[in-house]
Fold this sequence. Notes:
By secondary structure, the protein is an alpha/beta fold. It contains 9 helices and 8 strands.
Amino acid sequence: MPVRREQSLYRPVKAFLEKLGYAVKGEICGCDIVALKGDAPPIVVIGELKLTFNLELVLQGVDRAAISDEVWLAARMSARGKGREGDPRFRNLCRRLGFGLLGVTPAGAVEILISPSAPTPRRDPRRRSQLVEEHRRRQGDPVAGGGSRAPIMTAYRQQALICASLLAQGPKRPRDLKPVVAEGPTILLRNVYGWFRRTQRGVYALTREGESALKRWPQLPVAEISLVAARTPGPDDAVSA
């Protein structure tokens, strides 16, 4: 039978575990490596070997977790360090599952990438807050999940489109938009999408890009927009923005 290339990882990983005081044997009940330490009952460590860190290796670890005290996943280190072993998402997944990661170099050296006792990644309160805030501010459910190429209808884009609809009625001052869009003055000033232009001091109008945006995304809360008077401000009404 042809020799599996994963077998080239066996002896380095076995030597690593033996230095930790384990009695190590290969290919027991479908497990690449089984290591025991102590008696009545012994500590059971299972190791799984793959040429690269991938999902199949993690799934094997999940299966072995039910019959062991520790799981070590071992694979060859990528030549330039750009493999999964360097991906923070892959590392965090293994931390949450409680798996250890071992990288085997071409020279046969074993590096501990993650210990089975490594702490679970902390939650990110800032990103969590952004997630909740965007969910609460977004009107309705304008985007089907799973897309990646089309521009996303964020809460900010929704607010900018309302501002554009108001300006489609004619030039307006930032304070004219504020009763409908509290952040209207800031949206006009930042002009992220290039939809607005200043016609005179403190007075804004819609650009061609803004008109195109209204045609592309016509679904707007018309009832709210109608709350703002449609009059065109004169020079005496202008305020700095």
